[in-house]
Design a protein that fits this description.
The complex is a heterodimer. By secondary structure, chain A is mainly α. Chain A is built from 15 helices and 4 strands. Chain B is an all-alpha fold. The longest helix of chain B is centred in the last third of the chain and has 28 residues. The chains are: A mainly alpha, B mainly alpha.
Chain lengths: 428, 169
Amino acid sequence: MSPLDIFMLVARVAFAAFIPLCFIAVCVWMERRGAGYFQDRSGPNRANIFGFRAAGLVQNLADAAKLFFKEDVISDHIKHKFYFVLAPVIVFFTALVSFAVVPFADTLVLGGKSYIMQGIPLDLGILWFLSFVGFSVYGIILAGWSSTNKFGVLGALRSAAQVISYEIPMGLAIVSLLVVYGTVNLNEIAQFQGKLLFGFIPMWGAVLQPLGMVIFIIAAFAETNRTPFDLAEGESELVAGFHVEYSAMKFAIFFMGEYVAMFASSAMIVTLFFGGYQVPFLSTATLISQAKPLAFLLMIILPVVMHFFAGWIRRSNVSHYPRENDPRVFEATVYIKCFWGLVIILEVLLLAILFSASGGPTAHIFVVLLQVCTFLFKITMMIFVYIWVRWTLPRFRYDQLQKLGWQMLLPLALLNIFITSAFVVALS
Amino acid sequence: MFAEALFFGFAVLSVLGAIGLLVFRHPMNGAMSLVVTMISLAGLYALLSAKLIFALQLIVYAGAIMSLVLFIIMFLNIQESDLPAEKGRWLYQLGGIIVIIPIASFLIKIVKSIPGSKATIVGSGFGGVKEVGLVLFQDWLLPFEIVSILLLVALLGAVVLAGKRRMSK
């Protein structure tokens, strides 16, 4: 292996392992800011380092410090301590590994060699995701059962029954997708979605399979145990459900596992239905050939966007009552300077692309970075949908939840398979 | 070399899991050892380049079936006091081992008589979804359909039997 091969291997594994971890912080922050926005309040705005609150991101650090230094209690009544400790590890690890097969950019060609841009170069794609989503049930069952607590057992029973029953509509929605795409390889699925339908609509799964998309997204919400399907930890009835006996870092790992699962399923929804890493209307080949005009366009757009962003920061980051020498105005000035610095660095990098040979390795790397940014942007949008739903919809009753799964989604998914197959057979 | 080390790791784990299933008293421990066996079997399939079987083993056996088993064990909420006393357990196990010895020695003899060959991982184009699907739906279509009808009959039978008991009550 050449040094470049080793570097690419390390880079892609590091991306698949660390990006979900970084997104925990982003998700928690978005959740709190989103909750504040939907409930018409400010959200986290007190925790700070030397007066810098970073729009509430510092609150995450405070939380981490709190959970880290809290006493880690394992009650005496817990007999099976091994399973009790194993459960959060399973939940977190399965969520993290399920992201490993999602491609975050198109295959990079450097010096005649192609590098697949996913954590594990496996062509099983969706099957891998499905198997690890199934494994996360073990963590929930073991946590609830080993807690030896009636609330824990009830929460685990609800959650396991819910995950098992929603796996069926999810799998059937994937079947109809596979009929359309004709492959289980996620990279090939993303490449398929780079084409254009009738010459002007991107051939995204959302356009080709609208019903499948709705079913898959509902099932994904249920699989990640998020509201309106979070009966497993319904605070008003079950205290906290399956993690009621957990404290300190063990609870934090459950908490982080939930957000990693949310990130992984958002990544899967984006890859299956919203074109994955594809920039809309611009396929990878177009991007590589048009790298220079694109870089030039970005060089013009970036400062304009930054100008309006700076204005927004200046307007938003002020005290709500008149103060002398408002410290928040100083805070805003520092933020704006930091962002301008970032924009200047990006401009220099884009300038370097303008002066490099066209179609060379620089253009290829530029396109990969552009696709990674597109992919992460789409995932962030999908995570916002998760948060939006959580703070808008009330929780289902348990019988309503099972009725929705078995009597609505399952027949709809079967119908979708028949209609899709009929279309595919008629058109081919 | 690497593949052989993996093979030995998975083989040892799967045998240990099977032993654990027999030896552990608590059903939860038994079920978890069976999960270990199922996952290591999936690893062995992956070493044989059977990618689709690897995924199916993980989804169906290690995922769906075993989580249902665990679910039922949790549902029954078995405590140590509910388990039977099992007097003379060691005697039974000793007897079992004595019965197994001739069969095991016979099997070892057979395995030793197999000519040795190098284990290599076959690359892409074998055992994937497309390859297995083509063989299954071209060469083996009729047996496949018959087996699926058999499974459907078993499924309907389970539903009918479960429904009948509720009727009589």
